[in-house]
Design goal:
Blueprint lengths: L1 H21 L1 H6 L2 H19 L5 H24 L1 H8 L3 E5 L2 E2 L1 H6 L4 H10 L8 E6 L5 E5 L8 E5 L2 E2 L1 H6 L4 H10 L8 E6 L4 E6 L9 E4 L1
Antiparallel strand pairs: 1-2, 1-3, 3-4, 5-6, 5-7, 7-8, 8-9
Helix pairs in contact: 1-3, 1-4, 3-4, 4-5
Length: about 220
């Protein structure tokens, strides 16, 4: 019994360290890939505890190997939009400007009953009260009400990556965007940490250098 208690304590410390190493952001997102990692870590931790004949070192090594791959993929995801899409997915508009997106509801296998239930949880008893409803990549539903006066921004550049489809949404070409950026001294998308356009057609920009500061550069499209 003492051996089991000691092995449990060692695995607890190893798990705690591995999860802290992965970072708080990993726990808040909980994408499908991250859920798989968490479940696998839990299973790997249980094996040395249940069976005293199993190697404790091998169990710890397997846990930290999974944690390493999780950290590596999370880092690559910040640099590659394709990798991010593969492992984390993307936000999906279920309601856009008060209109239901039947195609996406069907694709995500979400019934109107399910949607209405989630809207009620968000204090929106009627779809008529909703301007936007976004199914986030972690499965949560974000709702913007019509009477809140908020708008859903169109992200044009994120961490140096351009979103061509969002350019089409705001009726802006890549060449026009490049010209707007060059006017304020930005010669490459890689210099931009974040650029988004609101519904008043105002372009807000964070550069890599001043990303921690408030928006310092704005340009009307």
């Amino acid at each position: 019994m003492l051996i089991v208690a000691v092995r449990t304590f060692i695995m607890y410390i190893a798990l705690l360290f591995a999860i802290r190493l992965m970072g708080n952001s990993e726990l808040s997102k909980m994408s499908p890939f991250q859920l798989v990692v968490v479940f696998m870590i839990a299973e790997l931790a249980a094996i040395p505890i249940d069976s005293t004949s199993a190697s404790l070192l091998n169990g710890i090594m397997a846990i930290f190997t999974l944690a390493f791959f999780q950290i590596l993929i999370s880092y690559i995801s910040t640099k590659s939009e394709t990798v991010k899409m593969i492992f984390s997915g993307k936000p999906i508009l279920l309601v856009e400007k008060g209109k239901l997106n039947y195609k996406e509801l069907s694709k995500q296998r979400i019934t109107l009953t399910d949607l209405m239930e989630q809207l009620r949880i968000q204090n929106c008893p009627s779809i008529c009260d909703v301007d936007y409803a976004v199914l986030e990549s972690n499965g949560n539903l974000s709702v913007i009400k019509k009477n809140e006066g908020e708008v859903l921004p169109s992200i044009l550049i994120s961490d140096g990556h351009l979103y061509p489809k969002n350019l089409e949404f705001v009726n802006l070409t890549q060449k026009k965007l490049e010209k707007r950026l060059s006017r304020i001294g930005i010669n490459s998308f890689s210099e931009v940490f974040l650029a988004f356009c609101d519904e008043s057609k105002k372009l807000h920009i964070y550069t890599i250098d001043d990303a921690a500061k408030p928006f310092t550069k704005e340009q009307i499209i």
